[in-house]
Backbone:
């Protein structure tokens, strides 16, 4: 039985009933409510919740007072009494008033999808930057809802929804919370400046950067570990990775790139979380190449891909060169694999298949490579000869009178930086 530990005096067993309201608006989005509910179950279990039951309701629009209909509220109360539930988790975001009304009617802790995701992030944050970002997101979410979380915050034993900033902070008045938000933003600004300095150093060093992006639990961290032997935390759960991790990846012909594993995306990623983590998420903008890792075995594969592309669009990174890696092919049915797109820009892989890992490095080389050109370098210009080895892979070298001829497969990014020094030495056909 899962026990969730928090910064309170006692431990609490979160025993929850999940609630899904399917409105006309949700139907128009094209998202399968059942698959979304399955994801909510995963989120709850990731947070250490014991899921007891699931309630569903179809309704044209949400009830302004209860979110679900009054009859469904009574059904939820009876189910909670019968099963011994102490928590209800809703698959959509609730207003502060709706939380308050439901708490009073049900005498349960009321959590929505957004708060659940924030809670998971709070449990995952390890670096100073991550902790600041999560607390900022939690307080920004909480501030307009303070009046709706009275019972939730005073309930003994903590549990989901009370992780992170701590009850003593959350029960202070709005002014104190606003002051705390201001202080967190100041601290985050300092961290962002430091991160920008690191980015600038990487730019000046000419390091080629490749970013792993994808839906949560698609296998990004596993790929990073398999490709680079990185010592990273890997677990079959949502948001196992929160803080970005970068490692050097050795490519064929002795080339190196910096491979970065980023936080996983999810549908309806809380706005406050995106805002707080923007500096971290924007690491992808520094990448020369994006590897979009997809769980090929997921029934929500296309929806998850769409979510990732939408967030990349919001971050201004949708135009980056991208390779889609359909991961977990080893657990896919043959018909699933046949339905996957193929051709340039797509690979069907398993992170545990050494041959597939080799294919990934080869595709990275090909994607980063530019044209293959021949350069005629004067024999006394060793500086230019050395530069050619930095901007690409020297395929062939020969000597002609006082010159050295180099046949080079260029790296697009590197050659772009140094072409002003080398362009005049290109041999014309």
Residues:
């Amino acid at each position: 039985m899962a026990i969730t530990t928090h910064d309170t005096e006692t431990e609490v067993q979160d025993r929850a009933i999940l609630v899904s309201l399917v409105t006309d608006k949700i139907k128009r989005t094209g998202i399968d409510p059942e698959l979304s509910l399955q994801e909510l179950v995963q989120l709850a279990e990731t947070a250490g919740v014991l899921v007891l039951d699931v309630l569903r309701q179809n309704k044209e629009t949400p009830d302004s007072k209860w979110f679900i209909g009054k009859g469904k509220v009574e059904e939820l109360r009876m189910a909670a009494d019968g099963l011994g539930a102490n928590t209800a988790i809703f698959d959509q975001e609730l207003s502060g008033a709706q939380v308050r009304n439901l708490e009073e009617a049900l005498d349960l802790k009321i959590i929505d999808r957004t708060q659940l995701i924030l809670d998971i992030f709070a449990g995952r944050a390890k670096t100073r930057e991550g902790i600041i970002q999560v607390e900022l997101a939690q307080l920004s979410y909480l501030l307009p809802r303070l009046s709706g979380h009275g019972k939730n915050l005073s309930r003994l034993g903590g549990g989901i929804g009370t992780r992170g900033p701590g009850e003593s902070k959350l029960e202070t008045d709005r002014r104190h919370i606003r002051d705390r938000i201001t202080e967190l933003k100041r601290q985050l600004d300092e961290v962002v400046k430091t991160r920008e300095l690191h980015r600038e150093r990487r730019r000046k060093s000419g390091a080629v950067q490749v970013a792993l992006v994808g839906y949560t639990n698609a296998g990004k961290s596993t790929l990073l570990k398999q490709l680079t032997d990185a010592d990273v935390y890997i677990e079959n759960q949502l948001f196992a990775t929160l803080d970005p991790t970068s490692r050097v990846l050795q490519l064929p012909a002795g080339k190196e790139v910096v491979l970065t594993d980023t936080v996983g995306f999810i549908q309806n990623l809380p706005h406050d979380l995106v805002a707080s983590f923007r500096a971290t998420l924007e690491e992808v903008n520094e990448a020369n190449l994006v590897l979009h890792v997809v769980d090929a075995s997921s029934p929500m594969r296309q929806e998850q891909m769409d979510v990732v592309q939408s967030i990349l669009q919001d971050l201004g990174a949708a135009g980056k060169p991208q390779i889609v890696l359909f991961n977990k092919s080893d657990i896919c049915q043959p018909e699933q694999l046949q339905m996957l797109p193929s051709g340039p820009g797509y690979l069907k892989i398993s992170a545990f298949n050494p041959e597939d890992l080799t294919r990934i490095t080869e595709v990275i080389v090909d994607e980063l490579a530019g044209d293959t050109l021949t350069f005629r370098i004067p024999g006394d210009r060793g500086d230019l000869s050395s530069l050619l080895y930095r901007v690409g892979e020297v395929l062939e070298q020969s000597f002609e009178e006082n010159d050295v001829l180099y046949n080079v497969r260029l790296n697009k990014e590197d050659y772009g930086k140094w072409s002003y020094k080398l362009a005049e030495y290109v041999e014309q056909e």
Observations:
- Residues 207-352 form a domain with the Rossmann fold fold (CATH 3.40.50.300).
- Residues 1-9, 152-157 have pLDDT under 50 and may be disordered.
